[in-house]
Amino acid sequence: MKATEDGTGLRSPRHRIDAHVHIMTHRRVRGGIKWVRPVAPDYEKVSLDITTEELLNHLEEEGVEAFFNFFYPLKPGETAEINQWHRDFADHCPNAIPFASLHAGDENKEAIIIQALDRQQFVGFKFHPYIQSFSILDDRLARVFEEFQERQCPVVIHTGFSEFYGRPSMVADTRELLRRYPRLHLVVAHMLYPDLPLDNWPALLDEYPHLYLDTTNTLVYCQPGTPGSERLQKLIASHSSRLVFGTDFPMGTLYPTGKLHDIAARLCPDQDSLDNLMWRTACRIIGKDLFAD
Questions:
Q1: Which one of 13, 152, 195, 202 is most buried, counting C-beta atoms within 10 A?
Q2: What is d(CA 36, CA 43) in angstroms, rounded to the nearest whole number?
């Protein structure tokens, strides 16, 4: 895909990676769509009976060439089954870049990590502390994060929108996690928005060279014309090599997800920052040039 302007006059990235997708079992996808509809009316257009094939077709229609896929357990003891389903799905979908998960309450967490990374070949791990109901500073996860740091394994952690979830802000916990594991390859999903001011990120990104930010959902609330747009544009201009684009599909904020692609193009000041946001940084996180440009 060459860099061109489409019919809207917007700049286009050379490639597109959606770094935040949730293709899961039908039960979990259905539950996610029902859950998000009250705050994302666009998702009334998405059938609760949408199939995996239809989900993949939508991504393809929006020009997505690869995507980070996340599927995590809601309770202890279901991790092995979920990770196996995820591995089987990715084996039949070459565009999927699968991230494993586990629960803080799981036994044999070391064995889960070995199975996921060494045998099943997941590229990293994803956690959603709010929905999984544990703290990232839970003592049961200390050895887990030590292992991830030593392996240089990408770890994506949901943060932000604490008021929506009715939970305490994760700002202090995230700062402490970085302090404890400064070499951890951490991707902060949703950028702790709006709990941490965007102006705080440049200093943290400079202090922790393996820290990345996932702009999923943040783009919507900081799109051009909103109070936060100037701050986000400034961050993109200075640190686009540390930011990735994501949609949260099929339980995000806007549908079709091309609306989010357009917002990204409007926020990026030049072609280089747009390519970083839309694909280069994602390749850097997984340590693989998917397009060999």
A1: 13
A2: 7
Q: Is the dihedral of CA 214, 217, 46, 256 positive or negative?
A: negative
Supply the pTM of this predicted model: 0.96
Q: Which two tokens stand for residue 65?
A: 């060439």
Q: Is residue 292 part of a domain?
A: no
The set of residues, in sequence order, having a beta carbon less than 8 Å from that of 63 and lying 6+ positions away, is 1, 16, 258, 261
Tell me the C-alpha distance between 181 and 177, whole Å. 6
User: In this structure, what CATH number is given to the domain that contains residue 120?
Assistant: 3.20.20.140
DSSP for 205-221, please give it: HHH-TTEEEE-TTHHHH
Asked whether residue 1 is assigned to any structural domain, the reply reads no
Whole-angstrom Cα distance, residue 246 to residue 218?
10
pLDDT tens column, 251-292: 999 999 999 999 999 999 999 999 999 999 999 999 999 998
**Residue 5 located in a structural domain:** no
The mean pLDDT of 123-152, rounded to a whole number, is 98
Burial class (CB in 10 A: 0-12, 13-18, 19+), 212: buried
| Measured torsion, CA atoms of residues 218, 221, 227, 232, in degrees rounded to the nearest 10 | 20
Return all residues near 220 (Cβ < 8 A) that are at least 6 apart: 253, 254, 260, 263
Residue 138 lies inside a defined structural domain of this protein: yes
Exposure on the CB side of residue 175, measured as CA atoms within 13 A: 9
What gap in Å lies between CA 213 and CA 62, rounded to an integer? 22
Domain coverage including residue 247: 17-286
Q: How many domains does the chain have?
A: 1
